[in-house]
Amino acid sequence: MIKSLRGMNDIMSEDYQRFTHFIETATSIAKRYGYHFIETPLLEETALFKRSVGDSSDIVSKEMYQFIDKGDNDVCLRPEGTAGVVRAFVQKKLDKAGGIHRFFYHGPMFRYERPQKGRLREFHQFGVESFGVESVYEDASIIMMVSDILNALGIGYRLQLNSLGCSECMPPYRQNLVNFVKSVKDRVCEDCIRRLETNPIRVLDCKNPTCQTIYRDAPKLISSLCKNCDDDFTTLKKILKDNDINYEIDTNLVRGLDYYSKTAFEFVSDNIGSQSAIAGGGRYDRLVEFLDGKATPAVGFAIGIERLLELIEMPQNQREGYYMGALDEEAIDLVVKLTQSKRKTHKVTLDYKAKNLQKHLKAADKADAKFCCVIGSNELNNDTIWVKNLQEKTEEIIKIEDF
Ligand code: HAM
Fold it and tell me: Which enzyme class (predicted)?
Protein backbone atom coordinates (compact mmCIF):
# COMPACT_ATOMS: atom_id res chain seq x y z
CA MET A 1 0.00 0.00 0.00
CA ILE A 2 1.29 3.47 -0.88
CA LYS A 3 1.18 5.76 2.15
CA SER A 4 1.58 9.50 2.53
CA LEU A 5 5.14 10.73 3.10
CA ARG A 6 6.47 11.05 6.66
CA GLY A 7 5.35 14.30 8.25
CA MET A 8 2.68 14.89 5.61
CA ASN A 9 -0.90 14.37 6.70
CA ASP A 10 -4.34 14.14 5.15
CA ILE A 11 -6.81 16.59 6.64
CA MET A 12 -10.16 14.85 6.80
CA SER A 13 -13.44 14.56 8.65
CA GLU A 14 -13.49 16.29 12.03
CA ASP A 15 -10.05 17.86 11.47
CA TYR A 16 -11.27 19.23 8.16
CA GLN A 17 -14.28 20.83 9.88
CA ARG A 18 -11.97 22.48 12.39
CA PHE A 19 -9.59 23.46 9.60
CA THR A 20 -12.30 25.18 7.53
CA HIS A 21 -13.78 26.78 10.63
CA PHE A 22 -10.33 28.22 11.37
CA ILE A 23 -9.87 29.55 7.80
CA GLU A 24 -13.35 31.11 7.76
CA THR A 25 -12.86 32.76 11.16
CA ALA A 26 -9.35 34.05 10.42
CA THR A 27 -10.37 35.25 6.94
CA SER A 28 -13.31 37.26 8.21
CA ILE A 29 -11.18 38.85 10.95
CA ALA A 30 -8.34 39.69 8.51
CA LYS A 31 -10.90 41.35 6.20
CA ARG A 32 -12.21 43.38 9.14
CA TYR A 33 -8.66 44.70 9.57
CA GLY A 34 -8.54 45.73 5.88
CA TYR A 35 -6.48 42.84 4.47
CA HIS A 36 -6.90 41.41 0.94
CA PHE A 37 -6.31 37.83 -0.15
CA ILE A 38 -3.12 36.93 -2.00
CA GLU A 39 -2.08 33.54 -3.36
CA THR A 40 1.55 32.99 -4.32
CA PRO A 41 3.10 29.87 -5.90
CA LEU A 42 4.19 26.91 -3.76
CA LEU A 43 7.38 26.67 -5.80
CA GLU A 44 9.83 29.57 -5.97
CA GLU A 45 13.49 30.11 -6.89
CA THR A 46 15.70 28.87 -4.08
CA ALA A 47 17.55 32.21 -4.11
CA LEU A 48 14.39 33.94 -2.82
CA PHE A 49 14.53 32.09 0.50
CA LYS A 50 18.33 32.20 0.77
CA ARG A 51 18.23 35.95 0.52
CA SER A 52 15.21 36.55 2.75
CA VAL A 53 14.95 33.84 5.40
CA GLY A 54 18.77 33.75 5.45
CA ASP A 55 21.51 31.31 4.41
CA SER A 56 22.48 30.57 8.00
CA SER A 57 18.95 29.86 9.28
CA ASP A 58 18.02 26.22 9.98
CA ILE A 59 15.16 26.58 7.50
CA VAL A 60 17.47 27.36 4.58
CA SER A 61 20.58 25.42 5.61
CA LYS A 62 18.85 22.16 6.59
CA GLU A 63 15.14 22.07 5.87
CA MET A 64 14.44 23.07 2.27
CA TYR A 65 12.69 20.82 -0.24
CA GLN A 66 15.11 21.97 -2.91
CA PHE A 67 15.69 20.48 -6.38
CA ILE A 68 16.75 21.30 -9.92
CA ASP A 69 13.76 21.27 -12.25
CA LYS A 70 13.68 20.04 -15.86
CA GLY A 71 14.71 23.52 -17.07
CA ASP A 72 17.82 23.48 -14.81
CA ASN A 73 16.31 26.01 -12.40
CA ASP A 74 17.24 25.76 -8.72
CA VAL A 75 13.80 25.78 -7.06
CA CYS A 76 12.24 24.82 -3.74
CA LEU A 77 8.86 24.32 -2.10
CA ARG A 78 8.16 27.38 0.02
CA PRO A 79 9.13 26.89 3.67
CA GLU A 80 7.16 30.00 4.70
CA GLY A 81 4.88 32.62 3.16
CA THR A 82 6.50 36.02 3.75
CA ALA A 83 9.25 35.79 1.12
CA GLY A 84 6.80 34.95 -1.70
CA VAL A 85 4.46 37.80 -0.74
CA VAL A 86 7.36 40.27 -0.68
CA ARG A 87 8.54 38.95 -4.05
CA ALA A 88 5.04 39.48 -5.48
CA PHE A 89 4.86 42.96 -3.92
CA VAL A 90 8.14 43.99 -5.60
CA GLN A 91 7.35 42.20 -8.88
CA LYS A 92 4.02 44.08 -9.16
CA LYS A 93 5.94 47.34 -8.44
CA LEU A 94 3.73 48.14 -5.45
CA ASP A 95 6.89 49.34 -3.65
CA LYS A 96 7.33 52.03 -6.32
CA ALA A 97 3.63 52.88 -6.24
CA GLY A 98 3.87 53.62 -2.51
CA GLY A 99 0.88 53.70 -0.16
CA ILE A 100 -0.31 50.98 2.17
CA HIS A 101 -0.85 47.38 1.02
CA ARG A 102 -2.18 44.68 3.30
CA PHE A 103 -2.39 40.99 2.32
CA PHE A 104 -3.49 37.75 3.94
CA TYR A 105 -2.85 34.20 2.71
CA HIS A 106 -3.15 30.60 3.75
CA GLY A 107 -1.76 27.40 2.37
CA PRO A 108 0.81 24.63 2.74
CA MET A 109 4.45 25.24 3.70
CA PHE A 110 7.23 22.65 3.54
CA ARG A 111 10.15 22.13 5.90
CA TYR A 112 12.25 18.97 5.99
CA GLU A 113 12.26 18.79 9.79
CA ARG A 114 12.27 15.70 12.05
CA PRO A 115 8.55 14.98 12.36
CA GLN A 116 7.00 14.80 15.83
CA LYS A 117 3.77 15.93 17.46
CA GLY A 118 3.10 19.46 16.19
CA ARG A 119 6.08 19.40 13.82
CA LEU A 120 5.27 18.38 10.26
CA ARG A 121 7.07 18.44 6.94
CA GLU A 122 4.00 19.77 5.21
CA PHE A 123 1.98 22.12 7.40
CA HIS A 124 -0.43 24.98 6.83
CA GLN A 125 -0.13 28.61 7.79
CA PHE A 126 -2.51 31.52 7.85
CA GLY A 127 -0.50 34.73 7.56
CA VAL A 128 -0.75 38.45 6.94
CA GLU A 129 1.80 40.93 5.59
CA SER A 130 1.36 44.71 5.84
CA PHE A 131 3.49 47.05 3.70
CA GLY A 132 3.99 50.80 3.94
CA VAL A 133 3.25 51.53 7.62
CA GLU A 134 6.20 52.60 9.74
CA SER A 135 4.15 53.29 12.85
CA VAL A 136 4.39 50.79 15.71
CA TYR A 137 0.59 51.04 15.92
CA GLU A 138 0.59 48.64 12.95
CA ASP A 139 2.68 46.13 14.94
CA ALA A 140 0.17 46.42 17.78
CA SER A 141 -2.71 46.07 15.34
CA ILE A 142 -1.49 42.77 13.88
CA ILE A 143 -0.78 41.40 17.36
CA MET A 144 -4.36 42.30 18.30
CA MET A 145 -5.54 40.56 15.13
CA VAL A 146 -3.86 37.29 16.19
CA SER A 147 -5.42 37.73 19.63
CA ASP A 148 -8.87 38.29 18.05
CA ILE A 149 -8.49 35.15 15.92
CA LEU A 150 -7.40 32.98 18.85
CA ASN A 151 -10.13 34.39 21.11
CA ALA A 152 -12.79 33.78 18.46
CA LEU A 153 -11.72 30.13 18.36
CA GLY A 154 -11.64 29.76 22.16
CA ILE A 155 -7.86 29.25 22.24
CA GLY A 156 -5.86 30.42 25.26
CA TYR A 157 -2.35 31.75 24.69
CA ARG A 158 0.67 33.50 26.11
CA LEU A 159 2.20 36.32 24.06
CA GLN A 160 5.98 36.67 24.15
CA LEU A 161 7.49 39.91 22.99
CA ASN A 162 10.95 41.23 22.19
CA SER A 163 12.62 43.97 20.15
CA LEU A 164 15.46 43.02 17.82
CA GLY A 165 16.60 46.60 17.30
CA CYS A 166 17.56 48.18 13.99
CA SER A 167 20.66 48.67 11.84
CA GLU A 168 21.84 51.31 14.31
CA CYS A 169 21.62 49.41 17.61
CA MET A 170 21.88 45.78 16.47
CA PRO A 171 25.54 45.75 15.20
CA PRO A 172 27.13 47.09 18.43
CA TYR A 173 24.93 44.74 20.47
CA ARG A 174 25.95 41.81 18.23
CA GLN A 175 29.61 42.60 18.90
CA ASN A 176 28.95 42.69 22.67
CA LEU A 177 27.23 39.33 22.45
CA VAL A 178 30.10 37.84 20.40
CA ASN A 179 32.56 39.05 23.06
CA PHE A 180 30.41 37.48 25.77
CA VAL A 181 30.16 34.11 23.97
CA LYS A 182 33.92 34.11 23.33
CA SER A 183 34.47 34.65 27.06
CA VAL A 184 32.45 31.48 27.83
CA LYS A 185 33.35 29.49 24.71
CA ASP A 186 34.71 26.50 26.64
CA ARG A 187 31.26 25.90 28.15
CA VAL A 188 28.86 26.46 25.22
CA CYS A 189 27.91 23.88 22.59
CA GLU A 190 29.53 23.45 19.15
CA ASP A 191 26.46 24.84 17.40
CA CYS A 192 26.87 28.11 19.29
CA ILE A 193 30.55 28.34 18.29
CA ARG A 194 29.46 27.83 14.67
CA ARG A 195 26.72 30.46 15.08
CA LEU A 196 29.38 32.98 16.11
CA GLU A 197 30.58 32.84 12.49
CA THR A 198 27.17 32.69 10.78
CA ASN A 199 24.53 34.47 12.90
CA PRO A 200 25.63 35.20 16.50
CA ILE A 201 22.17 36.40 17.65
CA ARG A 202 20.81 32.87 17.18
CA VAL A 203 22.90 31.63 20.13
CA LEU A 204 20.18 33.14 22.35
CA ASP A 205 17.75 30.66 20.82
CA CYS A 206 19.96 27.61 21.56
CA LYS A 207 17.94 24.71 23.00
CA ASN A 208 20.92 23.20 24.86
CA PRO A 209 20.10 23.53 28.62
CA THR A 210 23.71 24.40 29.59
CA CYS A 211 23.84 27.15 26.97
CA GLN A 212 20.46 28.46 28.10
CA THR A 213 21.73 28.79 31.67
CA ILE A 214 24.90 30.55 30.49
CA TYR A 215 23.00 33.02 28.29
CA ARG A 216 20.91 34.18 31.23
CA ASP A 217 23.94 36.38 32.01
CA ALA A 218 24.45 37.48 28.38
CA PRO A 219 24.01 41.17 27.52
CA LYS A 220 20.39 41.96 26.65
CA LEU A 221 19.56 43.73 23.41
CA ILE A 222 16.56 45.29 25.07
CA SER A 223 18.92 47.28 27.32
CA SER A 224 21.00 48.44 24.31
CA LEU A 225 18.22 49.68 22.01
CA CYS A 226 18.69 53.06 20.32
CA LYS A 227 16.26 55.81 21.32
CA ASN A 228 13.95 55.25 18.36
CA CYS A 229 13.66 51.47 18.90
CA ASP A 230 13.30 51.95 22.65
CA ASP A 231 10.52 54.53 22.21
CA ASP A 232 8.69 52.28 19.75
CA PHE A 233 8.95 49.29 22.07
CA THR A 234 7.61 51.37 24.98
CA THR A 235 4.71 52.58 22.81
CA LEU A 236 3.96 49.02 21.67
CA LYS A 237 3.76 47.79 25.25
CA LYS A 238 1.49 50.72 26.16
CA ILE A 239 -0.91 50.09 23.24
CA LEU A 240 -1.14 46.41 24.15
CA LYS A 241 -1.76 47.22 27.81
CA ASP A 242 -4.41 49.84 26.92
CA ASN A 243 -6.17 47.18 24.85
CA ASP A 244 -6.02 44.45 27.51
CA ILE A 245 -3.50 42.26 25.69
CA ASN A 246 -1.24 40.56 28.22
CA TYR A 247 2.35 39.92 27.22
CA GLU A 248 5.63 38.64 28.63
CA ILE A 249 8.97 40.10 27.62
CA ASP A 250 11.32 37.37 26.40
CA THR A 251 14.75 38.91 25.84
CA ASN A 252 15.98 35.69 24.20
CA LEU A 253 13.23 35.61 21.57
CA VAL A 254 15.16 36.02 18.31
CA ARG A 255 12.94 34.05 15.82
CA GLY A 256 14.33 31.50 13.37
CA LEU A 257 14.21 33.72 10.29
CA ASP A 258 16.81 36.42 9.62
CA TYR A 259 14.64 39.19 8.21
CA TYR A 260 13.28 40.69 11.42
CA SER A 261 14.13 44.02 13.02
CA LYS A 262 12.43 45.82 15.91
CA THR A 263 9.23 44.01 17.03
CA ALA A 264 9.39 40.20 17.28
CA PHE A 265 6.67 38.12 18.90
CA GLU A 266 5.40 34.61 19.41
CA PHE A 267 2.08 33.29 20.65
CA VAL A 268 2.52 30.06 22.59
CA SER A 269 0.10 27.52 24.01
CA ASP A 270 0.77 25.52 27.18
CA ASN A 271 -1.61 22.77 26.06
CA ILE A 272 0.02 21.24 22.98
CA GLY A 273 3.37 19.82 24.11
CA SER A 274 6.90 20.84 23.22
CA GLN A 275 6.08 22.46 19.86
CA SER A 276 4.25 25.23 21.65
CA ALA A 277 4.55 28.16 19.22
CA ILE A 278 1.17 28.65 17.57
CA ALA A 279 1.97 31.92 15.79
CA GLY A 280 4.99 34.11 15.18
CA GLY A 281 5.85 37.31 13.45
CA GLY A 282 7.31 40.76 13.63
CA ARG A 283 8.59 43.73 11.72
CA TYR A 284 10.87 43.33 8.70
CA ASP A 285 11.63 46.84 7.42
CA ARG A 286 14.67 45.82 5.35
CA LEU A 287 13.35 42.79 3.50
CA VAL A 288 11.73 44.60 0.55
CA GLU A 289 15.07 46.26 -0.13
CA PHE A 290 16.96 42.92 0.22
CA LEU A 291 14.69 41.62 -2.54
CA ASP A 292 15.56 44.52 -4.86
CA GLY A 293 12.55 46.67 -4.02
CA LYS A 294 12.33 50.23 -2.78
CA ALA A 295 12.82 50.36 1.00
CA THR A 296 9.33 49.82 2.52
CA PRO A 297 8.43 49.25 6.17
CA ALA A 298 6.60 45.97 6.70
CA VAL A 299 5.22 43.77 9.46
CA GLY A 300 3.38 40.46 9.56
CA PHE A 301 2.66 37.14 11.27
CA ALA A 302 1.81 33.54 10.49
CA ILE A 303 -0.27 31.09 12.50
CA GLY A 304 0.48 27.35 12.29
CA ILE A 305 -2.92 25.81 11.65
CA GLU A 306 -2.19 22.14 12.54
CA ARG A 307 -0.91 23.11 15.99
CA LEU A 308 -4.26 24.76 16.70
CA LEU A 309 -6.59 22.07 15.45
CA GLU A 310 -7.02 20.18 18.70
CA LEU A 311 -7.54 23.45 20.61
CA ILE A 312 -10.31 24.86 18.44
CA GLU A 313 -13.71 25.00 20.10
CA MET A 314 -16.30 24.26 17.44
CA PRO A 315 -19.59 26.15 17.55
CA GLN A 316 -22.64 24.10 18.59
CA ASN A 317 -23.52 21.72 15.79
CA GLN A 318 -26.08 23.52 13.65
CA ARG A 319 -28.27 21.32 11.50
CA GLU A 320 -28.38 22.54 7.94
CA GLY A 321 -30.22 21.76 4.70
CA TYR A 322 -32.01 18.64 3.50
CA TYR A 323 -31.54 14.90 3.36
CA MET A 324 -33.48 13.25 0.51
CA GLY A 325 -34.27 9.56 0.16
CA ALA A 326 -36.64 7.09 -1.53
CA LEU A 327 -38.61 4.41 0.31
CA ASP A 328 -39.26 2.47 -2.92
CA GLU A 329 -37.20 2.01 -6.11
CA GLU A 330 -39.87 3.69 -8.24
CA ALA A 331 -39.50 6.98 -6.27
CA ILE A 332 -35.75 7.38 -6.88
CA ASP A 333 -36.00 9.41 -10.11
CA LEU A 334 -38.36 11.93 -8.51
CA VAL A 335 -36.11 12.21 -5.44
CA VAL A 336 -33.13 12.97 -7.73
CA LYS A 337 -35.14 15.59 -9.63
CA LEU A 338 -36.29 17.33 -6.42
CA THR A 339 -32.73 17.21 -5.07
CA GLN A 340 -31.39 18.96 -8.17
CA SER A 341 -33.92 21.73 -7.79
CA LYS A 342 -33.35 22.17 -4.01
CA ARG A 343 -29.55 22.24 -4.51
CA LYS A 344 -29.88 25.55 -6.35
CA THR A 345 -30.44 27.18 -2.95
CA HIS A 346 -29.70 24.63 -0.19
CA LYS A 347 -27.27 21.98 0.93
CA VAL A 348 -28.80 18.57 0.11
CA THR A 349 -27.50 15.10 1.02
CA LEU A 350 -28.93 12.46 -1.30
CA ASP A 351 -29.18 8.68 -0.96
CA TYR A 352 -29.56 6.86 -4.27
CA LYS A 353 -30.81 3.60 -2.73
CA ALA A 354 -34.37 2.86 -1.63
CA LYS A 355 -34.42 2.13 2.15
CA ASN A 356 -36.85 1.98 5.01
CA LEU A 357 -37.69 5.16 6.95
CA GLN A 358 -35.62 4.29 10.04
CA LYS A 359 -32.46 3.95 7.92
CA HIS A 360 -33.11 7.26 6.17
CA LEU A 361 -33.72 9.05 9.49
CA LYS A 362 -30.45 7.67 10.87
CA ALA A 363 -28.53 8.77 7.76
CA ALA A 364 -30.15 12.24 7.83
CA ASP A 365 -29.12 12.62 11.46
CA LYS A 366 -25.54 11.58 10.65
CA ALA A 367 -25.45 14.12 7.79
CA ASP A 368 -26.55 16.88 10.23
CA ALA A 369 -29.47 17.69 7.94
CA LYS A 370 -32.26 19.88 9.27
CA PHE A 371 -34.96 18.14 7.22
CA CYS A 372 -35.29 14.45 6.38
CA CYS A 373 -37.49 14.14 3.24
CA VAL A 374 -38.65 10.82 1.82
CA ILE A 375 -40.89 9.61 -0.98
CA GLY A 376 -42.39 6.11 -1.29
CA SER A 377 -45.16 4.66 -3.46
CA ASN A 378 -47.88 6.21 -1.24
CA GLU A 379 -46.40 9.68 -1.63
CA LEU A 380 -45.91 9.06 -5.38
CA ASN A 381 -49.58 8.25 -5.78
CA ASN A 382 -50.62 11.38 -3.87
CA ASP A 383 -47.97 13.78 -5.30
CA THR A 384 -46.64 14.40 -1.80
CA ILE A 385 -43.39 14.22 0.15
CA TRP A 386 -42.94 13.26 3.82
CA VAL A 387 -40.78 15.79 5.69
CA LYS A 388 -39.40 15.61 9.23
CA ASN A 389 -37.81 18.67 10.83
CA LEU A 390 -35.03 17.01 12.84
CA GLN A 391 -34.36 20.12 14.89
CA GLU A 392 -37.92 20.81 16.02
CA LYS A 393 -38.91 17.11 15.92
CA THR A 394 -42.03 17.83 13.85
CA GLU A 395 -43.26 16.03 10.73
CA GLU A 396 -45.63 16.90 7.91
CA ILE A 397 -46.77 15.79 4.48
CA ILE A 398 -46.30 18.43 1.81
CA LYS A 399 -47.61 18.63 -1.76
CA ILE A 400 -44.69 18.22 -4.20
CA GLU A 401 -45.60 21.51 -5.89
CA ASP A 402 -45.21 23.32 -2.51
CA PHE A 403 -41.90 21.63 -1.58
P1 HAM B 1 7.46 30.81 11.79
O2 HAM B 1 7.61 31.15 13.24
O3 HAM B 1 8.60 30.08 11.16
O4 HAM B 1 7.22 32.20 11.06
O5 HAM B 1 6.15 29.97 11.55
C6 HAM B 1 4.90 30.44 12.01
C7 HAM B 1 4.13 29.30 12.67
O8 HAM B 1 4.05 28.17 11.78
C9 HAM B 1 4.79 28.73 13.92
O10 HAM B 1 4.51 29.50 15.06
C11 HAM B 1 4.15 27.34 14.00
O12 HAM B 1 2.88 27.44 14.60
C13 HAM B 1 3.97 26.97 12.54
N14 HAM B 1 5.03 26.02 12.13
C15 HAM B 1 6.29 26.29 11.79
N16 HAM B 1 6.95 25.17 11.47
C17 HAM B 1 6.07 24.16 11.59
C18 HAM B 1 6.14 22.73 11.38
N19 HAM B 1 7.26 22.13 10.95
N20 HAM B 1 5.03 21.98 11.62
C21 HAM B 1 3.89 22.58 12.03
N22 HAM B 1 3.76 23.91 12.23
C23 HAM B 1 4.84 24.69 12.02
C24 HAM B 1 7.06 32.32 9.70
O25 HAM B 1 6.90 31.42 8.94
C26 HAM B 1 7.04 33.77 9.26
N27 HAM B 1 6.87 33.79 7.79
C28 HAM B 1 5.93 34.54 9.96
C29 HAM B 1 5.85 35.96 9.53
C30 HAM B 1 4.97 36.49 8.65
N31 HAM B 1 6.65 36.93 9.92
C32 HAM B 1 6.31 38.06 9.30
N33 HAM B 1 5.29 37.79 8.51
Answer: ligase
